[in-house]
Structures are given as structure tokens and as C-alpha cells.
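BUG: 3D viewer hangs when loading the predicted structure for this chain

Environment: internal workstation, default settings.
Expected: structure renders.
Actual: progress bar stalls at 90%.

Input used:
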Amino acid sequence: MRPVRNPVLFVLAIASVAGLALTGFVSHAPNRLLSGQPLPLWHAAPFPAATGIAAGVLALFVLSLVPQSRPLRWAVAVAGSGLILLTLDTAGQVAIGLIDPAHPASRTALGPAAWILVLCAALAIVDAVQRLNAGPLLRSVVAAGVVAAIGALLASGRLDALSFLREYANQRDAFAREIVRHVALVAAALVPALAIGTPIGVAVARRPGLGQGVYAGLNLLQTIPSVALFGLLIAPLSALAAAFPALAAAGVQGIGFFPAMLALMLYALLPVVRNTQAGLMGVDPAVVEAARGMGLTRRQIFWRVERPLALPVFLAGVRIVLVQTIGLAVVAALIGAGGLGTFVFQGIGQYATNLVLLGAVPTIMLALAADLAMRMLVELAGRRSSP
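C-alpha cells produced before the viewer hung:
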């Protein structure tokens, strides 16, 4: 038997085969509330499309067995991108074929096999890019290329019959409003977290004795479940708004945007403080001593020496905070803060899976985009700070 040259790609190919063999490619239901009937790829899709998907999976399997090289890794990235587009396009065309004018409420959704194919193909692309040792610019170009291709497929209308897109069409205006609200909520929490947490991290790095008390409080905040923290803020903020009408007029109240922003900010403090301290503590003392010997003041040493060298670690903390806050902001919809969590909880209440996906999938995409952007900044900062 030929040895496996790329175990990651091999496992992804096997998982894709298992998904196709054991689960439905699409799921067709009489309406948005009932569970759908799974339809396997070979029963639902036209023969050329089904053959193309099988060929794409086979290509990933074969590429895992041949000697690895730079051109082959590019081939994996291309094959993975093609498999994602072909899977989505085939599912969209199957959904169009299942439209029945006599049953306008029927829905066709991506089945487990389609989700597995898309996920495995995406992971194959990520693995190929990592093995290419691609820099931040090349990574962003690859990611932008895949996203642009999917965007073009969406714009073509070939996926409009899928239940997820039909939910979006019904919620188009609300979706635009809530995604802006979600981003605003994340930004409103992140900015004060950085403004408060960074000086605390600097103080803890300068005086390690402060760390015990600071981290005890911040760790305690992390142990409080997000829903519980939102609930705990309702009473004191409501009382504060009642006592000071000016604060209420400014938006301070027990439910809504302000308590959600405050809770998210409190959750974000620990990673900011910890990574600020870690970045400063990681600066070589010899470098600081050399700067001091050159006559630099303490303030100049911080801004010209310590801050640039600690920046990669600090940005790594910001990356953690940003991704964490994007995800936690979904829960903020429970107290009327809006955001993409609105669709998630509406879908849960209505037993509408595709409405849940309308909130969950964009949240995941926002988190992945933020993670990619911050990884690029961390790598660029690391290059600038290295000798």
C-alpha cells in the first residue's frame, strides 16, 4: 500500500467519503418547522454534478498519497476551492429542482454530507496554505479569493432556493440592521476594554505584587456565565437609571445595548491585561538595560523599546478578545441588545433551524475574518519587532 504523505488531507478525504456514504446531501421538508427527509447525493443531484463532487473527493485522497511539493500544495488549495463551489452549486440546483408550486412553504436545506464536504474542503485549503509557509498577504489573498468566488455564486442566484437563503430573503432588512448592531456592540465593548485593560496590564508588569488581586477579580468575572452576568446587571443599572435621569437619557438602563456592552467589556479585560503583562515581561532585560545606558528616560524606554517589542503578544491578546466578543455578543440578544443573536433565539423559539443558521453562520464568518485579520497584524508586528 502506498504510504500516506499528508495524514491531514488523508483524514479529510476519508471523512468526506464517510459523509457522502452515510448521510444525506440535502434535506427536503414540507415547511420550515418540520424535520426534512435526507436525500443522498446520487439520488438528489444530476449525474454530472455528483460525479464531479466524487472526483473532487478522490482528488484530495490521491493528493494525500503522492510526494508533497509546493505545486502539489497549490493543487490541494485549488481542488478544495473547487469542491466547495461545486458542492454549494449542486445543492442550489437540487433545491431549485425540488421547488413545488403546489407547496410554496417547502424548504430544501444543506444536508450533513454537504456541510461535511464544505468543512473538509475548507480545512484542506487551510492545511495547504500552512504547508506553503504563506505570509499574511498570501493568506489573505487565498481567503479573499475563496470568499469572492462564493460571493459570486451567491450573487448569481443559483443558491436562492436553499432554505438558508430563503430565510435571508424574508429577513433582508432586519439582517442588515442586526449585523451592523452586532459589529457596533463588539466595537463598543472592545474599545473601553483596551483603554482600561492595557494600563492595568502595564501596572501589573511594573509591580507584580498587584497581579494577585487583579487576576483574582478578573478570573472571578470569567467564571460567571454570560447569561447570569447579563441578569446580574439588570437591577443595579435599572436603579442607577432611575436615580439619575441624565444617565437614563444617555442610554444607561437595565436591558438593551449598554448592559450588554458593559458585560462584554468585563469579559474582555482578562485577556487584555494578561497579554499586556506577558508582552512587557517578555522583553529582554538586556535590551532595556542597554536603552537605559543610552540615556533614555523610563517613558522613552516604554514607547521606543518595550512597546514595539511587546506589540506582537499584545495583539495576540486582542485577537483572542475580538473573536471571543464576537461570539459572546450573540447572547446579548437575550436582554434586547440586538445583533445576530436575535435570529438565533428567534429560530430556537420557532424551532426553525435555518433561522438559527441565519444568525450563527454570519457570526462564525465575522469571527473567522477577524481572526485572519488579527493574525496578519500579529505576524507583521512580529516581523517589525524582530532584529
